[in-house]
């Protein structure tokens, strides 16, 4: 039986405390993932807790900028940015910043924002009014922090649907690592562009984030790609792939503050999480072999 229970911390803690529950799998924010992992582990349960993310996409000077801009818009604004594998930060390595930002703006302005049931829709509303207001407050914060708001979706109007939880695509440029819009998970259609001078600076910036869920690199340089995929501290890596969600027979999950517990989801690790190994040793002995034997059992 598959049962969906709606509830808050009371329901969560009740599930964790229940003696019949042997394992707990969770997907959500990092603070709650940490709570679930700590509480369930203390009670001797197996835990798989996937937390938050702040996924970065690095664009090197040799990258196909048209492809990179398409990817940034698709990964940043798809599902209104409300997914753990959304790209939140684009790291533009000099001198591609201006051209890349212009290309992202051009594409984002062309998105159709309307009811998701409309076949023409590219992006729908946010999940609740409360969450829409929270995401909007981050846009206000980014302006206050001094980032350049290149594309402002706060005042979007959708014809015939005035009560929707609407927020259009927002794009910040000249974001720095001191800003909360860089460091905190926003979970909405807000994309931040950080400009750096070198590849090494870009990787260092990515690894400064406590999250290690997904990361992407756009380049035509195979050597840079191999170096990046071996060097970067993240659980899922994309090379010219903006949302590096692995196919289901590979495991899904990040590093750092993006994952707590024993195993990742899907793949062989997912199988191990939902099963327990049992080893059976049996012997159907011939009467002729009877008698004490103080050595280890043998396959005879």
UniProtKB/TrEMBL annotation:
<dbReference type="InterPro" id="IPR016160">
    <property type="entry name" value="Ald_DH_CS_CYS"/>
</dbReference>
<feature type="domain" description="Aldehyde dehydrogenase">
    <location>
        <begin position="2"/>
        <end position="280"/>
    </location>
</feature>
<dbReference type="GO" id="GO:0004491">
    <property type="term" value="F:methylmalonate-semialdehyde dehydrogenase (acylating, NAD) activity"/>
</dbReference>
<dbReference type="GO" id="GO:0006574">
    <property type="term" value="P:L-valine catabolic process"/>
</dbReference>
<dbReference type="Pfam" id="PF00171">
    <property type="entry name" value="Aldedh"/>
</dbReference>
<keyword id="KW-0520">NAD</keyword>
<dbReference type="InterPro" id="IPR010061">
    <property type="entry name" value="MeMal-semiAld_DH"/>
</dbReference>
<dbReference type="InterPro" id="IPR016163">
    <property type="entry name" value="Ald_DH_C"/>
</dbReference>
<keyword id="KW-0560">Oxidoreductase</keyword>
<dbReference type="InterPro" id="IPR015590">
    <property type="entry name" value="Aldehyde_DH_dom"/>
</dbReference>
<protein>
    <recommendedName>
        <fullName>methylmalonate-semialdehyde dehydrogenase (CoA acylating)</fullName>
        <ecNumber>1.2.1.27</ecNumber>
    </recommendedName>
</protein>
<dbReference type="GO" id="GO:0006210">
    <property type="term" value="P:thymine catabolic process"/>
</dbReference>
<dbReference type="InterPro" id="IPR016162">
    <property type="entry name" value="Ald_DH_N"/>
</dbReference>
<dbReference type="InterPro" id="IPR016161">
    <property type="entry name" value="Ald_DH/histidinol_DH"/>
</dbReference>
């Amino acid at each position: 039986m598959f049962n969906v229970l709606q509830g808050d911390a009371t329901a969560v803690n009740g599930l964790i405390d229940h003696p019949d529950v042997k394992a707990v799998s969770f997907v959500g924010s990092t603070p709650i993932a940490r709570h679930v992992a700590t509480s369930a582990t203390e009670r001797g349960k197996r835990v798989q807790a996937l937390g938050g993310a702040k996924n970065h996409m690095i664009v090197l000077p040799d990258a196909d900028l048209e492809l990179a801009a398409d990817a940034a818009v698709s990964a940043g604004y798809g599902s209104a940015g409300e997914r753990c594998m959304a790209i939140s930060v684009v790291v533009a390595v000099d001198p591609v910043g201006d051209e890349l930002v212009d290309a992202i703006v051009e594409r984002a302005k062309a998105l159709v924002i309307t009811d998701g049931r409309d076949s023409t829709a590219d992006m729908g509303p946010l999940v609740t009014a409360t969450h829409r207001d929270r995401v909007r407050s981050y846009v206000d914060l980014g302006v206050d922090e001094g980032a350049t708001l290149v594309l402002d979706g706060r005042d979007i109007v959708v014809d015939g649907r005035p009560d929707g939880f609407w927020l259009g695509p927002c794009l910040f440029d000249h974001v720095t690592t001191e800003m909360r819009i860089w460091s905190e998970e926003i979970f909405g259609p807000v994309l931040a562009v950080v400009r750096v001078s070198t590849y090494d600076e870009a990787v260092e910036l990515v690894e400064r984030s406590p999250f290690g869920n997904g990361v992407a690199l756009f380049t035509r340089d195979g050597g840079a790609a191999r170096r990046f995929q071996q060097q970067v501290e993240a659980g899922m890596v994309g090379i010219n792939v903006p949302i590096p969600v692995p196919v289901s027979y590979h495991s899904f999950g990040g590093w750092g503050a993006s994952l707590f517990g024993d195993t990742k989801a899907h793949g062989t690790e997912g199988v191990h999480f939902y099963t327990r190994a049992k080893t059976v040793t049996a012997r159907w002995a011939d009467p002729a072999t009877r008698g004490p034997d103080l050595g280890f059992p043998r396959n005879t």
